[in-house]
Amino acid sequence: MALIVQKYGGSSVADAEKIKNVARRIVRTREEGNRVVVVVSAMGDTTDDLIRLAYQITEKLDTRELDVLLSTGEVVASTLLAMALHGMGHPAISLSGAQAGIRTDSAYSRARITNIEPRRVVAELDKGNIVIVAGFQGITEDMDITTLGRGGSDTTAVALAAALKASVCQRYTDVDGIYTTDPRLFAGARKLKDISYEEMLEMVTYGFKAIHPRAVELGELFGVPILVASSFNDNPGTLIKKEVSMEIRNKVRGIAHDLDVAKITVVGVPDHPGIAASIFVPLAEAGISVDTIVQNASIKNITDLTFTVAESQLAGAMSVVRPIAESIGARECVSDARLGKISIIGTGMQNAPGYAAKMFDTLSKANINIQLITTSEIRITCIIEEALVKDAVIALHRAFELETED
Amino acid sequence: MALIVQKYGGSSVADAEKIKNVARRIVRTREEGNRVVVVVSAMGDTTDDLIRLAYQITEKLDTRELDVLLSTGEVVASTLLAMALHGMGHPAISLSGAQAGIRTDSAYSRARITNIEPRRVVAELDKGNIVIVAGFQGITEDMDITTLGRGGSDTTAVALAAALKASVCQRYTDVDGIYTTDPRLFAGARKLKDISYEEMLEMVTYGFKAIHPRAVELGELFGVPILVASSFNDNPGTLIKKEVSMEIRNKVRGIAHDLDVAKITVVGVPDHPGIAASIFVPLAEAGISVDTIVQNASIKNITDLTFTVAESQLAGAMSVVRPIAESIGARECVSDARLGKISIIGTGMQNAPGYAAKMFDTLSKANINIQLITTSEIRITCIIEEALVKDAVIALHRAFELETED
Fold first, then answer.
1. Pairing between β-strand B332-345 and β-strand A113-116 as defined by DSSP bridges
2. For B254-399, which CATH class?
3. Per-residue model confidence (pLDDT) at position A406
């Protein structure tokens, strides 16, 4: 019998009817002869509702208490799902993160899993139970409840699949797979049958929200294949797995985009050692992530320093950078929030030349000006005007023939 | 420093404002120089809402899963109360039943506390924390969550007070004390300063809903004084404690009543051994509690058997009794749902005669017919017509001079 770990997101268990729908899917997997472990998120907006309630009590939330509060959302969903399975005549049991042996450090609200001791999970599977585990949570050495932060339930599912040596981790939400680009932006987007961990990581980091990078990294580390599919239909999803195929195929696999981009330029900076650190260390200390950094060639020891941050962090970044710019004698400090990022991604690119040239040429022919460029081995990213992102996606999708099956 | 255990009911923490109100009361107790442990119930109707949600999933609820589900209600309230205390600048920590060391048997939905290991509670108190414990719940040897059933949070509070050797367990709800009789029935009812455990037990068993008998029994067993008071005002409450005073005083302490009473009479039963068992064993097996039982003197080996059940269980009881009555050759089987119970209670009664006579005489003068009578050492109960219960309460309150201070 194969062991399958399934994970259902909050939108899949948002009400009693949807929970019963999920239970029917689980039963089907069970009746196909599999041992099944299910990780579940909190119902619909439960987590947001609990946070709102907490803010009605006090403005400054203690993270230990908040973690205990939020962990109840997943516990509620897991018990209801177990009850739904009982109602359909199938033995099932819900376990909290603690009971499932999810041990974490004590960094409340963003805890990391230190190890998993799945004895209880295995014992319940051996009794013939379908095991429902409350996602997003774990327990410290001191028996205090923690939550795993963003992507927490995905992480629980992949980590459990690794610990149990499951054959696959199936992740169900309202998204039915990974597309060549965002279908809301371009109707010609095509769903991929499979994608490598590396490609997926670049996709999520550069604008795809389909799955959290933590879960993908963990899947890659332990070699757990992750299926991304919808809980609302039976369309085939996308399997995230090891580098897919050695055969010749389309080298660009997807186009990611991100509209949450702003650019800051410190103009006329005296170019001497330590200047970059004097700007970027305070930004890091203020919790602001700096993405692309470009420094122009120095003319008469004067240079311009340009970097990007998330649009939502622009105001904060400017308030840190302005006084520094003044103190180091820079001419001025300007920003532009109307930018977007567009990336082509594919493991095939790393050993084949010409992709960058084709990307720049395509954008140029579409009259799209490139402001900044960054690359990794399997990704090329251009920063362009926000209003032109959609045109860029469509032009690149056509140029790299992503409509065509691999 | 004295150690005080406080317990706040669901109506006292029904919303964010009420939680902050409770936090202010706790702070006051803390600032008077006490160590404080607080047991809290789920907010308002949370428990009922969760049960309703479960019934939307399936009709037959698994009690293990239901217990986990319901336990989240108290956890939510405990974290919010801890946050409210933080917001007021006071160190506090919430603990689940499991973390507080409340060990129980595994009788889900009605678990009994087997022992308490309050190491964590003591450690947190020693750190200067106000400790908030989620009521109503515990954990089995197998680390499974249980709930304690009716009166669960009261029981948690008194049991913790016993384990911690607290000087008092203060129980706060929307009721501000124990009255000589129900003030909604008779405006002349007077609040008692104190009452003995035994008297309180008879009061709650015979119609007072102010506190659950389990908590009172536990208080008596471990000698924990229990204060019953309101969380919405500062009126003095009623202290439940050891037999109060050796001085002469009013011997009747209170009048309890209960309208949920029905009577079944099996008429013309052949009087031979085993007949009673043939009726009452199947009733017990059907989960129906039989209260008063009266068997008339037998005439020519034919007798009538009369007993009372809760009105809500009358239909169920009749469906059990009718076929039995037929099979044992009884003449007929009749019932009356329009009955009430009225009880006078007081430890002073046990060594002084004349109370029963005075009760019967008072009811007779008020033209109230007594249908059945039962007694304990400190209680006399009459079953009368439901419509006359209010008149009976007022007549007895006057006759035994309960308006007068002790």
1. unpaired
2. alpha beta
3. 60
